[in-house]
């Protein structure tokens, strides 16, 4: 990335990044949750239903958006509504997100919880992680500045070795068989590493299970 593009991106982040203090928020304090579902994953519709059902059971307003950066063609068609989906066409010069789409989605929302299931690491997704005004943020990528309070990272081993993956963000992965999380001195979480190679719906189920257990 060139210096000009880097400078422009940095300016965009400084202008729109949320200044809200984030950290672990108990389930009982969550009134609105924003889920960004990876529509490229075959389990996207199951994830939508699971997120909506979970929120309904706990009295939470669910807002569902999607990411889908495939190149569409006659053979590859969109799966979700354009106005609720972040796509290639929403990326402009210097790979900056087009602000019209951002203002009509993440910038107009103030959810208590952000759950981003997209594994995509492009700048648009970093912008969303930073700009969303949520009190508790969960994601699948480690971005500069650590915008997520809980990061789900894949193990570097895909041969049955469930050793913890490297994580330099706010959270520290632990053994994959554990389901506990405890606050640190900075009120951030230490949480299990969830294998990114499993289906998206399985990842979501682990997140929802975690949210339920820590409430107790």
Give an account of the 3D structure.
The protein is 27% helix and 14% strand. Helix 1 packs parallel to helix 4 and helix 2 packs parallel to helix 5. With 216 residues, it is α/β, with parallel strands linked by helices. The strands form two sheets. A six-stranded parallel beta sheet has the order 3-2-1-4-5-6, covered by helices on one side. Strands 7-8 form a two-stranded antiparallel sheet. InterPro entries: DUF6913. Pfam families: DUF6913.
Q: How is this fold's topology laid out?
A:
Layout: H1 3-16, E1 32-38, H2 44-57, E2 61-67, E3 85-86, H3 99-104, E4 113-116, H4 123-131, E5 136-139, E6 150-151, E7 182-183, E8 189-190, H5 200-215
Parallel strand pairs: 1-2, 1-4, 2-3, 4-5, 5-6
Antiparallel strand pairs: 7-8
Helix pairs in contact: 1-4, 2-5
In short:
Residues 177-186 have a biased composition (Polar residues). It contains five helices and eight strands, in the order H-E-H-E-E-H-E-H-E-E-E-E-H.
Query: Percentage of helical residues?
Result: 25-40%
Which strand order spans the largest sheet, edge to edge or round the barrel? 3-2-1-4-5-6
CATH class: Alpha Beta
Shape: globular
Helical run tally: 5
CATH architecture: 3-Layer(aba) Sandwich
- Biggest sheet record: 6 strands, parallel
Region (Disordered): 154-188
InterPro entries: DUF6913
Biased composition (Polar residues): 177-186
Write a concise keyword list for the protein shown above.
about 220 residues; globular; six-stranded parallel sheet; alpha/beta; DUF6913; about 25% helix; Rossmann fold; 8 strands; two-stranded antiparallel sheet; about 15% strand
